[in-house]
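From the thread on structure requests for the teaching lab: each student submitted one protein with a one-line request. Submission from student K.M.:

"Model Exocyst complex component 5 from Dromas ardeola, tokens only."
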Amino acid sequence: EPFVADEYIERLAWRTPGGGSRGGEAFDPKRLLEEFVNHIQELQVMDERIQRKVEKLEQQCQKEAKEFAKKVQELQKSNQVAFQHFQELDEHISYVATKVCHLGDQLEGVNTPRQRAVEAQKLMKYFNEFLDGELKSDVFTNSEKIKEAADIIQKLHLIAQELPFDRFSEVKSKIASKYHDLECQLIQEFTSAQRRGEISRMREVAAVLLHFKGYSHCVDVYIKQCQEGAFLRNDVFEDAAILCQRVNKQVGEVFSNPETVLAKLIQNIFEVKLQSYVKDQLEEQRKSDAEQYLKNLYDLYTRTTNLSSKLMEFNLGTDKQTFLSKLIKSIFISYLENYIEVEIGYLKSRSAMILQRYYDSKNHQKRSIGTGGIQDLKERIRQRTNLPLGPSIDTHGETFLSQEVVVNLLQETKQAFERCHRLSDPSDLPKNAFRIFSMLVEFLCTEHIDYALETGLAGIPSSDSKNANLYFLDVVHQANTIFHLFDKQFNDHLMPLISSSPKLSECLQKKKDIIEQMEVKLDMGIDTLNCMIGQMKHILTAEQKKTDFKPEDENNVLIQYTNACVKVCGYVRKQVEKIRNSMDGKNVDTVLMELGVRFHRLIYEHLQQYSYSCMGGMLAICDVAEYRKCAKDFKIALVLQLFDTLHALCNLLVVAPDNLKQVCSGEQLANLDKNILHSFVQLRVDYRSARLARHFS
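Reply posted by the TA:
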């Protein structure tokens, strides 16, 4: 522990008798001083003793340092001598090594020809045995030495190829026969080892066969035996993947070129197993059932490409992507060449069947409807003429639009787009997708939606029809919903297939033309508003009585508004709700504004037909107030403003003659033409009185 002087003195004082107040002892400073003096003397003596010891150790250390330095110098000299000896030894070793290498080269130069000569002598000896026609050597008779025999016969076979046929035909045939026998034995041995699962023996035999012509046959045998019992389940693709996974682990332990063997196995699976399986699945349905044929083709192609993706993880050589693509193409090329024709043919017949089945369920025979160009339709709209659809027809409330039909058509087209994406060549994909889209346009937009619009237009009753049912708004509502579904499929399934091709602009233009043509026909449905106004007019004519506004008993009027007003407002509210449910966006406001303006014109002209007593005028004001409440449902500022003005005009029917000028100069009537104001004042029963005429003039 570190030395602390204060603590040391405290301990010393504590140990000295009388040095502190502990234990009840009195404090004795003299005794404590005496103890301190004695202790200081002891410390001085101890310090001198330690100092002498330190000086002695320093002298000893200096002496040993000198001796150590002297010893180090001697060791350095010895090291220099040893290093010189080492250099001399190294030079000597280098000299000897040079001599040994030279001697080795000389020995090798002598030994190599000797070994070749010995080997040639052995081969000549074996060749003589074939020449004599009797194989005596143990290497040919002992089956356990088949490896050595194979090496010899392979060399003899190469030598025999160089010999002239006329002189050595017999021996050449014998060597060839033995070559073939050994080759067969090796292949048989390899087959047996594979069946026993002896990987080391298989590897050994394969290494020997590598130099034989029958090596490829050995690989074929291996591939054949690998597949025995591998395809027992119904899923040939899963079996193939499992087989390749298992062989991939084994083939590297057996063959020196595992990637080639595995590639050959995969090629055999594709060209034999898969091609046969695909043919069995597709050929019969190709001519009889287009729907099942397309589904199976898509499924088989997808499963084949998925299998190819799994096989990509194996080492199959440098360009395995191209290798696998060629294998897939070899299986499906005959089916993919005319795929799009089959797809279009099926889609056309299937779509026609879906539509026909729907119309048959409605007991409806489709009418032949002539279609003009968009500009022709626009011109008719501009001139407010009717379409040449012949006489009005009664659709009995049927819109001839079906969500189920639309879903079925879109589902068929969606599946067609998916198959097109998978089965089309990348260069043909945009073109094929456009053809499928054209089928969808033809059957969904033209044959179904457009036909329903045409039929709906033809079913719009004339404006003077009684109890007319306005089903065209239901057609508009359903057509709007259906087109949203059509647009969603366009964006979700067609756009990804054509987004980077010139077909994109063509598809967008086609879609734009469809929308424009449908919108023109929907605009032509504005005649529906004429029917609505006609219905209102019919209600007013039937329900409004002249006595409503000129009652016989002015003091006994108990109603708040007329029965005609109640029925018209009820009818209008239903139609406004129907329009809101049938349309969306700005179309709602546009149609409601048109209806509101016509509604106002009808009420304005209707009020002009009657004469009003004071109480009748009050009732007219109540009616117009109710009409104004109804106009609020339109949520169109212009319509509400028109009815506000009309309500102000009705005040002219009841205001006192003295106040007419003041009312006419009010905020709502000040900007109106004086003739309009005059026409309303003339409706008063008291107009002919000189006083009223004088005040208004």
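TA comment: The radius of gyration is 57 Å. The first helix runs from residue 5 to 15.
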